[in-house]
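Troubleshooting entry. The earlier prediction with guanosine-5'-diphosphate gave an output that would not parse, so I re-checked the input for stray whitespace and re-submitted. Clean input:
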Amino acid sequence: MLTAVVGINWGDEGKGRMVDLLSERYDIVCRYQGGNNAGHTVVNERGKFILNLLPSGILRDETVNVMGPGMVIDTEHLFHEVERLREGGIQITPRHLKISDRATICMPYHKLLDCLEEDRLADKKFGSTRRGIAPVYADKYMKKTLRMGDLRHPELLREKLEGILEWKNLTVHNGYGHEPLQVEEMLNWLETYAMAFREYVCDTTIFLNDAIKAGKSVMFEAQLGALRDIDFGIYPFTSSSSTIAAYAPIGAGIPNQKLDESIGIIKAYSSCVGEGPFTCELFGPKGDELREAGGEYGAATGRPRRVGGFDVVASRYGTLMQSATCLALTKMDVLSYLDQIPVCVAYEVNGQRIDYFPTGLELTEAKPIYEYFKGWKCDISGCKTKEELPQAALDYIAFVEKAVGCPIKYISVGPEREQYIEMF
Ligand code: GDP
Protein backbone atom coordinates (compact mmCIF):
# COMPACT_ATOMS: atom_id res chain seq x y z
CA MET A 1 0.00 0.00 0.00
CA LEU A 2 1.43 3.38 -1.02
CA THR A 3 -0.39 6.27 0.63
CA ALA A 4 0.26 9.98 0.51
CA VAL A 5 -0.90 12.12 3.43
CA VAL A 6 -1.15 15.65 2.15
CA GLY A 7 -2.48 19.09 3.04
CA ILE A 8 -5.60 20.38 1.29
CA ASN A 9 -5.29 23.99 2.41
CA TRP A 10 -2.48 26.47 3.20
CA GLY A 11 -0.60 24.09 5.50
CA ASP A 12 -0.90 23.66 9.28
CA GLU A 13 -3.94 21.45 8.81
CA GLY A 14 -2.72 19.06 11.50
CA LYS A 15 -0.93 16.68 9.15
CA GLY A 16 1.57 15.85 11.88
CA ARG A 17 -1.00 14.36 14.24
CA MET A 18 -2.68 12.41 11.43
CA VAL A 19 0.61 11.04 10.15
CA ASP A 20 1.55 10.09 13.70
CA LEU A 21 -1.76 8.27 14.05
CA LEU A 22 -1.75 6.57 10.66
CA SER A 23 1.96 5.76 10.55
CA GLU A 24 1.31 2.75 12.79
CA ARG A 25 -0.24 1.06 9.75
CA TYR A 26 2.85 1.56 7.55
CA ASP A 27 6.32 0.09 7.58
CA ILE A 28 7.99 3.16 6.11
CA VAL A 29 7.27 6.90 6.38
CA CYS A 30 8.83 9.12 3.78
CA ARG A 31 9.22 12.91 3.44
CA TYR A 32 9.43 13.88 -0.22
CA GLN A 33 9.68 17.68 -0.45
CA GLY A 34 10.54 20.86 1.41
CA GLY A 35 12.91 21.55 4.25
CA ASN A 36 12.66 22.88 7.79
CA ASN A 37 10.45 25.82 6.84
CA ALA A 38 7.37 24.36 8.50
CA GLY A 39 6.74 22.12 11.43
CA HIS A 40 4.58 19.24 12.49
CA THR A 41 3.50 19.13 16.09
CA VAL A 42 2.94 15.64 17.38
CA VAL A 43 1.61 14.92 20.85
CA ASN A 44 1.73 11.33 22.07
CA GLU A 45 2.45 9.30 25.19
CA ARG A 46 6.15 10.21 25.00
CA GLY A 47 5.54 13.95 25.03
CA LYS A 48 5.13 16.85 22.62
CA PHE A 49 7.50 16.93 19.65
CA ILE A 50 8.02 19.49 16.93
CA LEU A 51 9.38 17.94 13.76
CA ASN A 52 10.65 20.19 10.99
CA LEU A 53 12.74 17.80 8.92
CA LEU A 54 12.35 14.28 10.26
CA PRO A 55 9.42 12.21 9.04
CA SER A 56 6.78 11.76 11.77
CA GLY A 57 7.30 8.00 11.82
CA ILE A 58 10.52 8.70 13.71
CA LEU A 59 8.49 8.63 16.93
CA ARG A 60 7.80 4.91 16.46
CA ASP A 61 10.77 2.62 17.01
CA GLU A 62 9.63 0.03 14.48
CA THR A 63 9.08 2.46 11.57
CA VAL A 64 11.75 3.17 8.96
CA ASN A 65 11.90 6.83 7.95
CA VAL A 66 13.10 8.15 4.63
CA MET A 67 14.14 11.66 3.64
CA GLY A 68 13.77 11.68 -0.13
CA PRO A 69 15.64 13.34 -3.02
CA GLY A 70 12.99 16.07 -3.27
CA MET A 71 13.99 17.46 0.13
CA VAL A 72 16.38 20.26 1.00
CA ILE A 73 18.16 19.51 4.25
CA ASP A 74 19.77 22.03 6.59
CA THR A 75 21.99 19.54 8.41
CA GLU A 76 22.61 21.97 11.29
CA HIS A 77 18.88 22.04 11.94
CA LEU A 78 18.68 18.27 11.53
CA PHE A 79 21.57 17.83 13.96
CA HIS A 80 19.70 19.75 16.66
CA GLU A 81 16.35 18.13 15.85
CA VAL A 82 17.90 14.68 16.28
CA GLU A 83 19.57 15.76 19.53
CA ARG A 84 16.27 17.03 20.97
CA LEU A 85 14.45 13.83 20.10
CA ARG A 86 17.20 11.68 21.59
CA GLU A 87 16.89 13.69 24.80
CA GLY A 88 13.19 12.77 24.71
CA GLY A 89 14.10 9.09 24.52
CA ILE A 90 13.55 8.59 20.77
CA GLN A 91 15.92 6.16 19.05
CA ILE A 92 17.49 7.41 15.83
CA THR A 93 19.92 5.10 14.07
CA PRO A 94 20.67 4.33 10.40
CA ARG A 95 18.10 1.55 10.77
CA HIS A 96 15.38 4.11 11.62
CA LEU A 97 16.46 6.86 9.26
CA LYS A 98 17.60 6.76 5.62
CA ILE A 99 18.60 9.98 3.89
CA SER A 100 18.70 10.11 0.10
CA ASP A 101 22.09 10.68 -1.48
CA ARG A 102 20.22 12.87 -3.98
CA ALA A 103 18.71 15.20 -1.36
CA THR A 104 20.07 18.75 -1.46
CA ILE A 105 22.03 20.28 1.42
CA CYS A 106 20.72 23.65 2.57
CA MET A 107 23.90 25.57 3.46
CA PRO A 108 24.30 28.52 5.86
CA TYR A 109 24.63 30.87 2.87
CA HIS A 110 21.17 29.89 1.68
CA LYS A 111 19.77 31.13 4.97
CA LEU A 112 21.96 34.22 4.71
CA LEU A 113 20.67 34.97 1.21
CA ASP A 114 17.09 34.52 2.37
CA CYS A 115 17.70 37.12 5.12
CA LEU A 116 19.62 39.53 2.85
CA GLU A 117 16.79 39.49 0.33
CA GLU A 118 14.03 39.79 2.92
CA ASP A 119 15.89 42.76 4.49
CA ARG A 120 16.40 44.36 1.07
CA LEU A 121 12.65 44.17 0.50
CA ALA A 122 12.14 46.00 3.83
CA ASP A 123 8.47 47.04 4.07
CA LYS A 124 7.62 45.02 0.93
CA LYS A 125 8.73 41.84 2.71
CA PHE A 126 7.63 38.54 1.30
CA GLY A 127 7.11 36.80 4.61
CA SER A 128 9.84 34.22 4.08
CA THR A 129 10.61 31.94 7.01
CA ARG A 130 14.28 32.92 6.39
CA ARG A 131 15.32 29.28 6.45
CA GLY A 132 16.99 29.41 3.04
CA ILE A 133 14.42 27.30 1.24
CA ALA A 134 13.84 29.46 -1.87
CA PRO A 135 17.60 30.12 -2.36
CA VAL A 136 18.52 26.45 -2.01
CA TYR A 137 15.81 25.27 -4.44
CA ALA A 138 16.94 27.99 -6.86
CA ASP A 139 20.51 26.67 -6.63
CA LYS A 140 19.30 23.11 -7.10
CA TYR A 141 17.79 24.11 -10.43
CA MET A 142 20.93 26.11 -11.25
CA LYS A 143 22.74 22.81 -10.61
CA LYS A 144 25.14 24.48 -8.18
CA THR A 145 24.52 22.74 -4.86
CA LEU A 146 25.96 20.01 -2.70
CA ARG A 147 23.90 16.89 -2.22
CA MET A 148 23.88 14.55 0.75
CA GLY A 149 25.75 11.96 -1.35
CA ASP A 150 28.70 14.38 -1.60
CA LEU A 151 29.37 13.75 2.09
CA ARG A 152 30.55 10.29 1.13
CA HIS A 153 33.46 11.86 -0.79
CA PRO A 154 34.94 14.45 1.59
CA GLU A 155 38.10 14.64 -0.54
CA LEU A 156 36.07 16.33 -3.30
CA LEU A 157 34.19 18.80 -1.10
CA ARG A 158 36.81 21.56 -1.11
CA GLU A 159 37.02 21.70 -4.89
CA LYS A 160 33.25 21.62 -5.30
CA LEU A 161 32.75 24.35 -2.70
CA GLU A 162 35.45 26.55 -4.27
CA GLY A 163 33.54 26.52 -7.55
CA ILE A 164 30.17 27.12 -5.93
CA LEU A 165 31.33 29.89 -3.60
CA GLU A 166 33.17 31.77 -6.35
CA TRP A 167 29.82 31.98 -8.12
CA LYS A 168 27.81 32.61 -4.96
CA ASN A 169 30.02 35.51 -3.92
CA LEU A 170 28.99 37.35 -7.08
CA THR A 171 25.63 37.68 -5.36
CA VAL A 172 26.50 37.70 -1.66
CA HIS A 173 29.52 40.01 -1.89
CA ASN A 174 29.28 41.90 -5.19
CA GLY A 175 25.48 42.13 -5.14
CA TYR A 176 24.36 42.48 -1.52
CA GLY A 177 27.69 43.89 -0.29
CA HIS A 178 27.99 41.26 2.42
CA GLU A 179 31.44 39.97 3.36
CA PRO A 180 32.48 37.14 1.04
CA LEU A 181 31.75 33.52 1.90
CA GLN A 182 34.82 31.50 2.89
CA VAL A 183 35.47 27.93 1.80
CA GLU A 184 37.13 27.06 5.12
CA GLU A 185 34.12 28.21 7.12
CA MET A 186 31.74 26.11 5.02
CA LEU A 187 34.01 23.06 5.29
CA ASN A 188 34.02 23.46 9.07
CA TRP A 189 30.25 23.72 9.10
CA LEU A 190 29.96 20.53 7.06
CA GLU A 191 32.39 18.78 9.38
CA THR A 192 30.43 19.85 12.48
CA TYR A 193 26.87 19.36 11.30
CA ALA A 194 26.74 17.25 8.16
CA MET A 195 29.38 14.53 8.41
CA ALA A 196 27.51 12.95 11.34
CA PHE A 197 24.80 11.95 8.85
CA ARG A 198 27.15 10.25 6.42
CA GLU A 199 26.20 6.79 7.65
CA TYR A 200 22.50 7.59 7.17
CA VAL A 201 22.97 8.45 3.49
CA CYS A 202 21.89 5.81 1.00
CA ASP A 203 20.22 5.29 -2.34
CA THR A 204 16.59 5.52 -1.23
CA THR A 205 15.43 4.57 -4.72
CA ILE A 206 16.94 1.12 -4.28
CA PHE A 207 15.87 0.90 -0.63
CA LEU A 208 12.23 1.80 -1.33
CA ASN A 209 11.84 -0.30 -4.47
CA ASP A 210 13.28 -3.34 -2.68
CA ALA A 211 11.03 -2.72 0.33
CA ILE A 212 7.91 -2.37 -1.85
CA LYS A 213 8.84 -5.56 -3.72
CA ALA A 214 9.06 -7.29 -0.35
CA GLY A 215 5.49 -6.19 0.43
CA LYS A 216 6.25 -3.25 2.73
CA SER A 217 3.78 -0.38 2.91
CA VAL A 218 4.87 3.22 2.54
CA MET A 219 3.34 6.48 3.70
CA PHE A 220 4.44 9.69 2.00
CA GLU A 221 4.23 12.62 4.36
CA ALA A 222 3.79 16.07 2.88
CA GLN A 223 4.73 19.38 4.36
CA LEU A 224 2.53 22.43 3.74
CA GLY A 225 -0.65 22.21 1.64
CA ALA A 226 -1.94 22.25 -1.93
CA LEU A 227 -2.28 26.04 -1.90
CA ARG A 228 1.47 26.37 -1.21
CA ASP A 229 2.52 24.22 -4.15
CA ILE A 230 5.02 26.00 -6.38
CA ASP A 231 2.94 25.39 -9.53
CA PHE A 232 -0.63 25.09 -8.29
CA GLY A 233 -0.63 27.25 -5.17
CA ILE A 234 -1.05 30.98 -4.59
CA TYR A 235 2.14 31.84 -6.49
CA PRO A 236 4.33 33.69 -5.63
CA PHE A 237 3.19 33.25 -2.02
CA THR A 238 3.93 29.57 -2.25
CA SER A 239 6.71 27.35 -1.07
CA SER A 240 9.46 26.50 -3.54
CA SER A 241 8.64 22.81 -3.72
CA SER A 242 5.89 20.59 -4.99
CA THR A 243 3.50 19.81 -2.14
CA ILE A 244 1.03 17.73 -4.12
CA ALA A 245 0.44 14.01 -3.82
CA ALA A 246 1.28 13.31 -7.47
CA TYR A 247 4.87 14.43 -6.73
CA ALA A 248 5.24 12.09 -3.74
CA PRO A 249 6.69 9.08 -5.58
CA ILE A 250 9.04 11.38 -7.53
CA GLY A 251 10.27 13.33 -4.52
CA ALA A 252 10.69 10.09 -2.60
CA GLY A 253 12.91 8.65 -5.36
CA ILE A 254 10.51 6.11 -6.83
CA PRO A 255 8.89 7.72 -9.88
CA ASN A 256 8.24 4.19 -11.15
CA GLN A 257 5.66 3.59 -8.39
CA LYS A 258 2.01 4.67 -8.29
CA LEU A 259 0.05 5.82 -5.24
CA ASP A 260 -2.83 3.65 -4.05
CA GLU A 261 -4.32 6.34 -1.84
CA SER A 262 -4.14 10.05 -1.16
CA ILE A 263 -5.46 11.10 2.25
CA GLY A 264 -6.15 14.82 2.31
CA ILE A 265 -5.89 16.64 5.62
CA ILE A 266 -8.42 19.43 5.69
CA LYS A 267 -9.06 21.80 8.56
CA ALA A 268 -12.55 22.61 9.90
CA TYR A 269 -11.68 26.31 9.45
CA SER A 270 -8.88 28.15 7.63
CA SER A 271 -5.46 29.45 8.62
CA CYS A 272 -2.60 30.92 6.65
CA VAL A 273 0.88 32.03 7.62
CA GLY A 274 2.53 35.05 6.03
CA GLU A 275 1.60 37.24 3.11
CA GLY A 276 -0.58 36.58 0.07
CA PRO A 277 -4.23 36.32 -0.88
CA PHE A 278 -6.37 34.69 1.81
CA THR A 279 -9.89 35.44 0.70
CA CYS A 280 -11.77 33.95 3.65
CA GLU A 281 -9.77 35.92 6.27
CA LEU A 282 -11.69 37.04 9.37
CA PHE A 283 -10.54 40.24 11.04
CA GLY A 284 -11.17 41.89 14.41
CA PRO A 285 -12.58 40.04 17.45
CA LYS A 286 -14.03 37.21 15.29
CA GLY A 287 -10.58 36.44 13.94
CA ASP A 288 -8.86 36.89 17.31
CA GLU A 289 -11.26 34.50 19.03
CA LEU A 290 -10.76 31.83 16.40
CA ARG A 291 -6.96 32.25 16.49
CA GLU A 292 -6.97 31.83 20.27
CA ALA A 293 -9.39 28.90 20.20
CA GLY A 294 -7.25 27.10 17.62
CA GLY A 295 -3.86 28.10 19.04
CA GLU A 296 -2.92 29.35 15.59
CA TYR A 297 0.72 30.32 15.98
CA GLY A 298 3.40 28.95 13.63
CA ALA A 299 5.18 25.78 14.82
CA ALA A 300 8.45 26.80 13.14
CA THR A 301 8.38 30.56 13.73
CA GLY A 302 5.77 31.32 16.43
CA ARG A 303 4.17 33.85 14.06
CA PRO A 304 0.43 34.44 14.63
CA ARG A 305 -1.45 32.85 11.75
CA ARG A 306 -4.19 34.59 9.80
CA VAL A 307 -7.50 32.78 10.26
CA GLY A 308 -10.86 32.49 8.55
CA GLY A 309 -13.90 30.26 8.25
CA PHE A 310 -13.82 27.05 6.23
CA ASP A 311 -13.23 28.02 2.59
CA VAL A 312 -15.28 25.85 0.26
CA VAL A 313 -13.73 27.29 -2.92
CA ALA A 314 -10.10 26.83 -1.88
CA SER A 315 -10.75 23.46 -0.22
CA ARG A 316 -12.55 22.00 -3.21
CA TYR A 317 -9.62 23.06 -5.41
CA GLY A 318 -7.12 21.64 -2.90
CA THR A 319 -9.00 18.33 -2.76
CA LEU A 320 -8.90 18.08 -6.55
CA MET A 321 -5.21 19.01 -6.81
CA GLN A 322 -4.34 16.39 -4.20
CA SER A 323 -6.48 13.77 -5.99
CA ALA A 324 -7.69 12.91 -2.50
CA THR A 325 -9.36 9.53 -2.14
CA CYS A 326 -10.57 10.41 1.36
CA LEU A 327 -10.22 13.24 3.86
CA ALA A 328 -9.41 13.78 7.51
CA LEU A 329 -11.23 16.82 8.91
CA THR A 330 -9.13 18.22 11.74
CA LYS A 331 -9.62 20.63 14.63
CA MET A 332 -13.39 20.16 14.73
CA ASP A 333 -13.25 20.69 18.50
CA VAL A 334 -11.95 24.22 17.99
CA LEU A 335 -15.31 25.32 16.55
CA SER A 336 -17.25 24.17 19.64
CA TYR A 337 -17.37 27.70 21.13
CA LEU A 338 -19.28 29.20 18.19
CA ASP A 339 -23.04 29.83 18.15
CA GLN A 340 -22.83 30.19 14.41
CA ILE A 341 -20.06 28.77 12.28
CA PRO A 342 -18.88 31.04 9.46
CA VAL A 343 -18.22 29.31 6.12
CA CYS A 344 -16.94 30.99 2.97
CA VAL A 345 -19.16 29.33 0.36
CA ALA A 346 -18.11 31.24 -2.76
CA TYR A 347 -16.01 34.22 -3.93
CA GLU A 348 -17.09 37.43 -5.55
CA VAL A 349 -14.89 38.84 -8.32
CA ASN A 350 -15.88 41.98 -10.24
CA GLY A 351 -19.41 41.70 -8.89
CA GLN A 352 -19.73 38.08 -10.08
CA ARG A 353 -20.14 35.08 -7.82
CA ILE A 354 -17.58 32.41 -8.68
CA ASP A 355 -17.02 28.96 -7.27
CA TYR A 356 -13.71 28.05 -8.94
CA PHE A 357 -10.38 28.95 -7.37
CA PRO A 358 -8.88 31.80 -9.41
CA THR A 359 -5.24 32.85 -9.82
CA GLY A 360 -3.37 36.14 -10.12
CA LEU A 361 -5.28 39.39 -9.93
CA GLU A 362 -8.67 37.65 -9.79
CA LEU A 363 -7.60 35.89 -6.62
CA THR A 364 -6.14 39.05 -5.10
CA GLU A 365 -9.41 40.89 -5.72
CA ALA A 366 -11.76 38.09 -4.66
CA LYS A 367 -14.12 38.84 -1.77
CA PRO A 368 -15.59 36.12 0.41
CA ILE A 369 -19.28 35.25 0.43
CA TYR A 370 -20.06 33.98 3.92
CA GLU A 371 -22.91 31.82 5.17
CA TYR A 372 -23.48 30.68 8.74
CA PHE A 373 -24.09 27.20 10.08
CA LYS A 374 -25.60 26.24 13.40
CA GLY A 375 -22.94 25.53 16.03
CA TRP A 376 -23.07 22.58 18.44
CA LYS A 377 -21.89 24.49 21.51
CA CYS A 378 -20.66 21.52 23.48
CA ASP A 379 -17.35 19.81 24.10
CA ILE A 380 -16.74 17.13 21.45
CA SER A 381 -13.08 16.50 22.31
CA GLY A 382 -13.94 13.24 24.09
CA CYS A 383 -16.11 11.80 21.29
CA LYS A 384 -14.83 8.46 19.99
CA THR A 385 -17.61 7.45 17.60
CA LYS A 386 -19.80 9.09 15.01
CA GLU A 387 -22.86 8.37 17.20
CA GLU A 388 -21.48 10.50 20.02
CA LEU A 389 -21.24 13.61 17.85
CA PRO A 390 -24.08 16.17 18.15
CA GLN A 391 -26.38 16.48 15.14
CA ALA A 392 -25.11 19.99 14.30
CA ALA A 393 -21.55 18.63 14.04
CA LEU A 394 -22.73 15.76 11.82
CA ASP A 395 -24.56 18.30 9.63
CA TYR A 396 -21.37 20.37 9.32
CA ILE A 397 -19.35 17.29 8.34
CA ALA A 398 -21.96 16.29 5.76
CA PHE A 399 -21.89 19.81 4.35
CA VAL A 400 -18.08 19.83 3.98
CA GLU A 401 -18.09 16.38 2.39
CA LYS A 402 -20.64 17.42 -0.21
CA ALA A 403 -19.06 20.83 -0.83
CA VAL A 404 -15.60 19.45 -1.65
CA GLY A 405 -16.79 16.20 -3.20
CA CYS A 406 -14.78 13.69 -1.21
CA PRO A 407 -15.65 11.33 1.66
CA ILE A 408 -14.46 12.29 5.14
CA LYS A 409 -13.01 9.23 6.79
CA TYR A 410 -11.50 10.72 9.93
CA ILE A 411 -12.54 13.51 12.27
CA SER A 412 -9.89 14.88 14.60
CA VAL A 413 -11.31 16.32 17.82
CA GLY A 414 -8.07 17.09 19.68
CA PRO A 415 -4.30 17.09 19.36
CA GLU A 416 -3.69 13.79 21.16
CA ARG A 417 -3.19 10.53 19.32
CA GLU A 418 -6.50 8.94 20.35
CA GLN A 419 -8.68 12.04 19.93
CA TYR A 420 -10.22 11.06 16.63
CA ILE A 421 -13.26 9.38 15.12
CA GLU A 422 -13.18 6.95 12.22
CA MET A 423 -16.37 7.66 10.29
CA PHE A 424 -16.46 4.46 8.18
P1 GDP B 1 0.81 20.47 10.32
O1 GDP B 1 1.92 21.31 9.80
O2 GDP B 1 -0.24 20.26 9.29
O3 GDP B 1 1.27 19.21 10.97
O4 GDP B 1 0.10 21.31 11.45
P2 GDP B 1 0.73 21.84 12.80
O5 GDP B 1 1.32 20.72 13.55
O6 GDP B 1 1.54 23.06 12.61
O7 GDP B 1 -0.58 22.38 13.48
C1 GDP B 1 -1.44 21.59 14.06
C2 GDP B 1 -1.61 22.06 15.49
O8 GDP B 1 -2.88 21.75 15.90
C3 GDP B 1 -0.69 21.35 16.46
O9 GDP B 1 -0.44 22.14 17.59
C4 GDP B 1 -1.50 20.13 16.84
O10 GDP B 1 -1.15 19.55 18.09
C5 GDP B 1 -2.87 20.71 16.87
N1 GDP B 1 -3.94 19.81 16.44
C6 GDP B 1 -3.94 18.89 15.44
N2 GDP B 1 -5.15 18.33 15.31
C7 GDP B 1 -5.94 18.91 16.25
C8 GDP B 1 -7.32 18.77 16.60
O11 GDP B 1 -8.08 18.00 16.04
N3 GDP B 1 -7.77 19.59 17.61
C9 GDP B 1 -6.97 20.46 18.28
N4 GDP B 1 -7.49 21.21 19.23
N5 GDP B 1 -5.68 20.62 17.96
C10 GDP B 1 -5.17 19.85 16.96
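This one parsed fine. Residues 104-196 form a domain with the Adenylosuccinate Synthetase, subunit A; domain 2 fold (CATH 1.10.300.10).
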